[in-house]
Amino acid sequence: MIKHTLFAVSIGLVLFFLYLLQHTGAFKSVAIGTDERGPYTLIYLEHTGAYHKIVDKIIQVETWAKDNSLNCRFTFGEFFDNPNVAEEGRLKSRGGCLIDSTQVEDVLGFKKATLPEGFKITELPKRKTIVALFNGSPGIGPFKVYPKVEDFMLERKLVGNGAVVEIYEVLDAKNMNTTYLFPVQ
C-alpha cells in the first residue's frame, strides 16, 4: 500500500513539474538575431534590489498610464547590472511602459512637470542589438534566453554595450511575448 502511494505521489509530482515547464514555455524555442532597434520612449520608475521584484513598479506605471489615457501595450524592464557579479540588494533596474513618442508630445506635453513622484520619461536611442524573441514566461528568461544569447555573442565575437531591455507584450491570459534587447558594439 505504501509503495503504491509513493508511486502515485511521484507520478503526480513529475506530471505537475512537466505541466509547469510546459506552462512557462520551457519547451519553446528562442529566436535570436541582430538588428537595429529604437528609439523607444519610456515612462518608468527606478528599482534597486532583486530583479524579480520589479513587477510592482511596472504595474504602477502601467496603471498610471492607462488612467491617463496612454496606450501601454508594451511594458519593459531595463536591467543594468549582472546578477552574477553584483549583490542582489544593489541591482539597478527600471521598469514601466514603452510608449509611442507622439503620445508624449500630444498627451503628456502639459503633464511632464506633473508626473507622479518618482516617475521619469526618457528615450532609448536607436542602436545595434541582439534581439531574442521568446513566447513564454519572462521568469525563465535568465535560464533559457540569456545562455543562448551568450553563446550567440561568443560565436559571433560580439561585445555587450549597455543594459539589457526586456519588452513584454501580454497576448492573453495564457500567452506572453518577451523581446530581449542586448545592445552590442
Q: What does the model show?
A:
About 5% of the residues have low confidence. It is built from 4 helices and 8 strands; from the N terminus they run αββαββαββαββ. It is globular. With 185 residues, the protein is of the alpha+beta class. The protein has a single domain, classed as Multidrug-efflux Transporter 1 Regulator Bmrr, Chain A.
Count every beta strand, where a strand is a DSSP E run of 2 or more residues: 8
Give the integer mean of the pLDDT values.
84
Shape: globular
Looking across the biggest beta sheet, what order are the strands in? 1-6-8-7-3-4-2-5
- The ordered H/E elements are HEEHEEHEEHEE
For the sheet with most strands, the description reads: 8 strands, antiparallel
Number of domains: 1
Could you name the CATH topology?
Answer: Multidrug-efflux Transporter 1 Regulator Bmrr, Chain A
Helical element count? 4
Task: Please name the fourth-level CATH homologous superfamily.
Answer: Regulatory factor, effector binding domain
Tell me the helix content: 25-40%
Counting helices, strands and paired strands, the structural category is: alpha+beta
Residue share in β-strands: 25-35%
Mind telling me which CATH architecture this is? Alpha-Beta Barrel
The rounded distance between the terminal residues' Cα atoms is: 63 Å
